Each structure stands twice: as structure tokens, then as C-alpha cells.
Amino acid sequence: DAGITQSPRHKVTETGTPVTLRCHQTENHRYMYWYRQDPGHGLRLIHYSYGVKDTDKGEVSDGYSVSRSKTEDFLLTLESATSSQTSVYFCAISDAQGSNQPQHFGDGTRLSIL
Amino acid sequence: SQQGEEDPQALSIQEGENATMNCSYKTSINNLQWYRQNSGRGLVHLILIRSNEREKHSGRLRVTLDTSKKSSSLLITASRAADTASYFCATGTYKYIFGTGTRLKVLA
Fold first, then answer.
1. How far apart (Å, rounded) are the C-alpha atoms in residues A46 and A60?
2. Chain A residue closest to B39 (CA)?
3. Nearest to residue A60, comparing CAs of A31, A37, A27?
4. Banded pLDDT at A97 (limits 50, 70, 90)
5. Which of A32, A6, A22, A5 is closest to A95 using CA atoms?
6. pLDDT at position A96, please?
7. Which residue on chain A is closest to B32 by alpha carbon?
8. What is the DSSP letter of A102?
9. What is the DSSP pairing of strand A54-57 with strand A19-25?
10. Mutate to test the interface with B, among A25, A30, A100, A101 (most CBs of B within 10 A)
11. What is the pLDDT of residue B1?
12. Closest approach of B56 to chain A, Cα-based (Å)
């Protein structure tokens, strides 16, 4: 399995609080992604990174920000969590873009916002 | 809207039978990938088929791609209980778009 660690694995928090999820990789892959998975929607891309300090928005980026200060770490922040952000969040990595490389996924963070 | 839409949404078969699931997409693609997700786990890459390929095999998996119909199918032959999972197709080069998945249940 690709070396991807998501933390925390589970979190319960209250509406309006800030939340940061961490994705750590040991593969030295250039590309990192954050997805959310909800019933009936499959996986939806939130943000992705194509290098240190290089990030771009995905399909559902509103309410989320990301940072990548090191190759191995990609942080997802909910500045002021809302109940609609209750979801399972997955981090993924890939070695190259546009060259038909698969993505490797972490085991997810289950986030509940009350 | 989802680029990939899997069909059926759910499938239940007996062990030893074949399972076929389909994926339709909307725009032109460079490649299409299939992933498996076991309950409570992340997605695992199964197979990638390029837009200039029509069929690809990997073990008990067979993937076909029809770019004229913008569709792909995943066939799992001689299914096992361990194949019980959700299966997703994905398209894209840097912004990957996943379908909503097919939930496969293989009964022992």
C-alpha cells in the first residue's frame, strides 16, 4: 500500500469551529488531492496540489482552504465548519499528471459537525 | 454533475457468477480508470484503459471502452465473496472526476 496517512481518522466537532485535516505521504509524489465522499454523490474533488505551495480548486471548494508547505504534507482546513461539511474526506496522491498515473488513497477521515 | 455515472447502482450475485458494471461519461477523455472501495477504506486502483484502447485484461478483470458511446464496462469473472465492494470509474488528467459507484455484493 502507498504510504498515505490521514489524521485524525474520526472527528466530531461543533458548527462554527475551525477544523484541520492532515494528509501525510511517504512516497514523494508530486500531486496530492482532497476529496469528500457523500451518499449519492460519489467522490468530489475539493482542492488539489501540484507541488509545494501550488494548489488549485476542485469542484466543491467553497468553505475549504488548503496548504502545502512540504512535499509530504497537504492540509485541508474548514475555517468555520457547517453541518453540510459532515462527510468522509479522502486524501489521494499520484506520481504525475496527465501521464495516465493512478491515484493512491488514504483510508479517510470521518468528520461529523453537530 | 458527475462525469462518470455507473450502472447499476447496486448488484447482487452468487459466488462464481460474473459481474458486469457500466460507466458512462460526458466529455472526451485521455483515459478511464476503475477503482474498488471496500467498506470503511479508501479507493484502490484496479485498472486503467487509454482512449486508444478498446479492451484490457488484468487477472479476473476485463475492461472495455467505447469512446463513440462514451461508455466503459468492467467485468469481474468468477466472482468471490472478497469482491464485495463498491466500484467506481474515474476520468480526467489532473482534475479527476469519479462516478457515484456500483455496490457489488457477492453471496457465498
1. 5
2. A107
3. A37
4. low
5. A32
6. 72
7. A100
8. P
9. unpaired
10. A100
11. 32
12. 15
The whole-angstrom separation of Cα A41 and Cα A48 is: 19
Residue A80 pLDDT exceeds 70: yes
Predicted pLDDT at A1:
58
A31·B99 Cβ contact <8 A: no
Below-50 pLDDT ranges, chain B:
1-2
β-pairing verdict for A64-70 and A10-13: unpaired
Could you say which DSSP state residue A59 is in?
T
CB neighbourhood size of A18 (10 A): 10
- Other CB atoms within a 10 A radius of the CB of residue B65 amount to 21
Q: Are A19 and A109 in contact (CB under 8 A)?
A: no
Average pLDDT over residues A30-54: 92
Q: How far is B93 from chain A (nearest CA, A)?
A: 5
- Average pLDDT rounded to a whole number, residues A2-9: 92
Chain B residues within 8 A (CB-CB) of chain A? 2, 4, 30-31, 33, 40-45, 48, 50, 88, 90, 93-101
